[in-house]
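Listing S7. Sequence submitted for prediction.
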Amino acid sequence: MKTILRKPLHLLISIPLLSLCFALTCSANSWNLEHDDDGIKVYTQEIEGSSFKAFRGETSIKSSLHNLMAHHTDISAMELWLQDCAKSEVLRRISNKDFYIYQRTSAPWPVSDRDYVLHANIKQDPKTYAVTMTFEASTAVKQNHEDCVPVTQLTGYWRFTPQGDGYIFVEYETHADPSGDLPAWLANSFVVDQPLGTLEKMRRRVESNIYQLPKEMSYIIEPPLPLAIKNKSISEQATKHKQ
């Protein structure tokens, strides 16, 4: 089943996010498969108490954890691959694993751009070596601009689980309220485009191996191959369970 990216309306509700996690456990509703093509799956989910759907994207990327994390923590370069990201910069860095990011989402006239500050955290599971990058909207650091509509309700995560044979299983999940006067029905009709476009561009960049920075990524531990293969079996079972 192919899904065609729709432009320019999907720009209205795309919330390009840094790659980081916050499990969307606030809803017991099931995930619905909306797109499955070219190695990328996109699901949507109704969230209790919200008119806006959550999305979840999945794919596998041939890369080391070091290469993928070097790509994902190059915050200013997110403008090149995060769908509709017009601006991305680090505002405050607590550590390599804890920082605040400002991002701006472009939208076509006459709709105002959206912007937000994200608090991002990175953790690695000592048993599976999976890396989870969480993010959520924060007011701890002020950086919003007058010509943008500030987004204050946004949470999500990226998770990277080594699979064996040099592949990493990528999960990207987000729920956001784009704020302003954007109707929920319109936002929900284009919610698939954001993760789909993001994962397509991300996969091309990561697999080009433009980042080779093992020293800078010393806080990320590469898994031994046998464990990575075991993780592949676990992730496959999780995907089947979701369907």
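Caption to Listing S7: primary sequence and predicted structure tokens for the chain studied. The helical segments are 65-72, 184-189, 193-207, 225-242. Residues 2-27 have pLDDT under 50 and may be disordered.
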